Amino acid sequence: MKFKSLIALTAVLTLTACGGVDPNSPQGQRQAIFKEMLKVSENLGGMLRGRIAFDETRFAEGAVQLDKLSHEPWKHFPQVREEGGDTRAKDDVWQRQERFQELARNMEASTAELVAATQNKPLREQALVAPVKRVEDACKACHEEFRAY
């Protein structure tokens, strides 16, 4: 009886360990970048929507960080879809590369515009609403076409 219980426990633990995404894989790396982008973007939006106290320095730093991050995930989408893993990327990412890359460049352009908007000091929250909205719209456009929910 003890032996059967030990085998069952070992099997459960082995299967549990197999459930994660390798953080060093292309999928793991892009997921980490997207999570960081979401966190930064939520902080910026939170400052403009009153959920977080507006801090000019933190906002400008966040815009720069988001711009740097916006250039990173695309290089972790290999030319051919990798097998395995629990990805939310639709097959269209690999089948419609030209459109996917176009939306990636739109994202990069929108974050660059946001950084440019933070150069005019003192920052006026109202002047930042439109650039943040363009970043959010760029995210949404790509998600609608290329992310499986």
From TrEMBL:
<feature type="signal peptide">
    <location>
        <begin position="1"/>
        <end position="19"/>
    </location>
</feature>
<dbReference type="InterPro" id="IPR012127">
    <property type="entry name" value="Cyt_c_prime"/>
</dbReference>
<keyword id="KW-0732">Signal</keyword>
<keyword id="KW-0408">Iron</keyword>
<keyword id="KW-0249">Electron transport</keyword>
<keyword id="KW-0479">Metal-binding</keyword>
<dbReference type="Pfam" id="PF01322">
    <property type="entry name" value="Cytochrom_C_2"/>
</dbReference>
<dbReference type="InterPro" id="IPR002321">
    <property type="entry name" value="Cyt_c_II"/>
</dbReference>
<dbReference type="InterPro" id="IPR010980">
    <property type="entry name" value="Cyt_c/b562"/>
</dbReference>
<keyword id="KW-0349">Heme</keyword>
<keyword id="KW-0813">Transport</keyword>
<protein>
    <submittedName>
        <fullName>Cytochrome c</fullName>
    </submittedName>
</protein>
